[in-house]
Amino acid sequence: MASMAAAFIKPTNAFPQSPITFVKTISPSIQLPISLRIRNNARRRIRVSCGLIDPDGGKLMDLIVDESMRAFKNREALSLPRVKLSRIDLQWVHILSEGWASPLSGFMRESEFLQTLHFNSLRLHDGSVVNMSVPIVLAIDDAVKTRIGASSKVALFGSDDRPVAILNDIEIYKQPKEERIARTWGTTAPGLPYVDEAIKNAGNWLIGGDLEVIEPIKYHDGLDSFRLSPAQLRNEFISRNADAVFAFQLRNPVHNGHALLMTDTRRRLLDMGYTNPILLLNPLGGYTKADDVPLHWRIKQHQKVLEDGVLDPETTVVSIFPSPMHYAGPTEVQWHAKARINAGANFYIVGRDPAGMGHPTEKRDLYDPDHGKKVLSMAPGLERLNILPFKVAAYDKTRGKMAFFDPSRPQDFLFISGTKMRTLARNKENPPDGFMCPGGWSVLVEYYESLVPANIGSIPKPEAVAQLKSCRS
């Protein structure tokens, strides 16, 4: 995997470990979140200048203990009441420790939880507002609450029974599960993946406090070199002399329609007057539902996309975003955008039904596909971020490649859905030439081949994939 990292990221000097503050120098004339204004600016070909956007709250949080104090903090953790972290809990510790959720200093206390739940934002001590749309909380049950007793701090332990962090100045409060689910997802229907995985069977209490993470979170899965922190990403952008950073998140393989959107965005930024816009291709790397393509296969596919020249390695940084996935539509997409501000992005590409999914009990989308991009243009605390809505891309049969949809000749376009793409790959059928680079498609086919047991000659259907994965875990 080390060679994969080299394919994506140019070598840079060692990254600083201490918290850093970056000063924005964005031209006021282009700090506009509405795509219409961006298009107007592009037509005027304004001159722009840009440094990296400030993190939320003005400072990038770094909650990892200094190396000289790690042995001491490890010993201290062994003497404290213990809270066992789930896999998703550990992913949130990772998010908090590196500053993706700045200005949060740890798991939310009740006041932060309620502001997030009801306002999708946090009001800071100076009166300013930052976006925060999903609760970042840690659940405990009655037995753990009793063991904690009157202690003001607890130790967080991983699945290997090693201390991960200390949570200080703790506050324990009731978890209103139904209210949390209803306000985050807009429904309490059964079958919401994150709810089933992380909330339904979790404890009825939440514990908040300030985190001290004993050492950087590592997964030892061959992909840690791709998990750049916001501080590391900011240094990477500086080393490349970026004057604009545009972020694109996905949890699926990259096809040529995605690539068209990303390359066209760079062209638009150059037309606006930027000289070196850098793409942050930031695949989600935390929890995803069982039928999504696993992270290591997606990274392998992304590597082929760059190797085949579909995206330019000189202007692209591929790095894993370690957040778990909620599938909470317009609520969650605000979190995705806010986290990229902290990573240094001042432009965010948003498409149809971002962070959405099918309704768990009805045959329809859970969210209106246009609401995500509309919400992002109005969301509190995201005013500094320029939102770039997708153009609709489809396969142009007359040109033999992905192109922007032309409503004057709809008969010439073929829409290949994610479901159709997965069906073709499972059946070892090729998509139309120009839909995806050959190397990337071969990785996708290889993934679905890996799901076929050696003694079975048929490809499992989507509903069988989740069952097969659960048997392997």
Describe this structure in words.
- The protein has 473 residues and is α/β, with parallel strands linked by helices.
- It has two domains: 67-213, Sulfate adenylyltransferase, CATH 3.10.400; 224-450, HUPs (Rossmann fold), CATH 3.40.50.620.
- Helices cover 35% and strands 14% of the residues.
- It has a five-stranded mixed sheet. Strands 10-9-8-11-12 form a five-stranded parallel sheet, sandwiched between helices. A three-stranded antiparallel sheet has the order 14-13-15.
- The radius of gyration is 22 Å and the shape is globular.
- The two termini are 22 Å apart.
- Residues 1-49 and 457-473 have low confidence and may be disordered.
